[in-house]
Amino acid sequence: MRTVELAGSGLSASRLGFGLSGLHHLVRSTNRQNLLSTAFDAGITYFDTSPYYGHGLAERELGVFANVRRHSIVIATKFGIPANPWLNRIPVLMYSRLAANAALRRLTKRQSFEVKRNYDYRGTSAVASLYRSLRALRTDYVDILFLHDPTLERMAEPDRLFDTLQGLQSQGKVRFLGLAGGARDCLAIIRRYPAQHWLVQLNAAPGPVELELFSAQSVPFQSSYGHFRDKKEPIASLLATSVRANRDGVILFSTRHPAHVRAMVKLLSTLEPN
Is pLDDT at 99 greater than 80 in this prediction? Predict the structure, then answer.
């Protein structure tokens, strides 16, 4: 698998990145660690997490995994969608809630539920969130801190928030700041604050046209996610589309199965021979 440079950062990472949004669905820590090890052994060095993923469990599990590999991997986490504090402290409640939500989806046919967001710049939010992430990840810095699904409307005081985040960056707690979300929302923030230097992780789930919005504006993006949500389309076709849409950045995917990790890496090698 080839290594790509994240434009404008000097950071290098694997062409495929591994997203931890579903890691908590594996109940046993040994299975979670095996999955992360399989990804790393297959050549994946970009790991994307969030306090919201497993309500802290994904960050903690990645922290265990990264403890002896910290300088060999890129760690990206987020701020803006916090963990539920009770589910964070008592994971068994999280699994009970997952089961209840699944039952509710079957009854109501609703596919998603509204999540709570908090983009507050004050220390009890942005700063405290990062320090919780650092403790969970067992590291004194993260490579990228993304704002999680931000919009200008959701941020009450963006100027102060960005100042706070830049302060964390100047302290060495964050190497790069980023935006992770929809193309139009990210572009709106970049246009409003052109002096800010963001790494961008785009949601490609609506289709390649989302990524083309950035290309049309000659604005670089460094990674993308959501390419593989159409379960009706063959994975080979979805990966080929993602390779065309994101030619030089990190393509994120997620799975609970080590065999799927190895298959994805092998499939990429047929599309992009080393």
Answer: no
